[in-house]
Amino acid sequence: xxxxxxxxxxxxxxxxxxxxxxxxxxxxxxxxxxxxxxxxxxxxxxxxxxxxxxxxxxxxxxxxxxxxxxxxxxxxxxxxxxxxxxxxxxxxxxxxxxxxxxx
Length: 103
Prior knowledge:
- About 40% of the residues lie in helices and about 0% in strands.
- It has about 100 residues and is mostly helical.
- α1 crosses α2.
- The chain is elongated.
- The model has no long low-confidence stretch (mean pLDDT about 85).
């Protein structure tokens, strides 16, 4: 008995990427490699939730009016919570290229 199996791994991967992007609230009308570039750009700009130790520079100064926000962010970092809500709007835009990220 012979079987004929056909696969399109690129199309399957594109569907997985589209699904991930939709779950994370990102819309994209691109496909193929253009979609993958957007996906990898988003992956590089995202902050994975994991516990971190926060260190302050001796030159660091925080204005008192934003100190509660800083404490909340530090607490989230130390607990390993998701901090994606604290990122800039461009961090969730797949086509926005962050030049500093790739330095």
